[in-house]
Amino acid sequence: MRNLRSLLLTQVLVLANVVAVPLSGTARSAQEQAENSSDTAYEIADVTPPKAVYKPDPQYTESARKKKISGTVVVAMIVTPEGKVRDVKVIKSLDKDLDKQAIAAVGTWRFEPATKDGKPVAVHLKAEANFRIY
Questions:
Q1: Where are the domains of the chain?
Q2: CATH superfamily of 2-133
Q3: What's the gap between Cα 101 and its chain centre?
Q4: Tens of pLDDT, residues 90-120
Q5: Which residues lie closer than 8 Å to 134 by C-beta, 6 or more apart?
Q6: 85: which strand partners?
Q7: Residue 50 and which of 14, 16, 40, 60 are 20 to 30 A apart at CA?
Q8: Could you give the CA distance from residue 130 to residue 95 in angstroms, rounded to a whole number?
Q9: What is the torsion angle, in degrees rounded to the nearest 10, for the CA atoms of residue 18, residue 79, residue 72 and residue 90?
Q10: Are 16 and 127 in contact (CB under 8 A)?
């Protein structure tokens, strides 16, 4: 019963802040792009941002729960023209285990791809995984 109550008091929120940055012609990494972008959603060069169609939440680890760790993990990623996620990197760490959980969950996300001129394109995205114990 105590574990069930702990689980019910733990909330994980994941918010995707879309930073649609086309990949063609750029030498900057996803991490550099995400670090230099604002936290608000916007479109660049007539790119329509991707839409999440499958977005499971990361799991809160038992060790983080025992330590009562709360906070945000920020990750940068690339969403491919096929709507798959690749190159997930932590750009703001919280806890090594929660960072791993955020990377694992985000790596499984699927999107309707971003488009430019009606054609699917790869884009950089930034997402936040908020881990809160209430």
A1: 2-133
A2: TonB (3.30.2420.10)
A3: 11
A4: 999 999 999 999 999 999 999 999 999 999 9
A5: 9, 10, 11
A6: 79
A7: 60
A8: 12
A9: -130
A10: yes
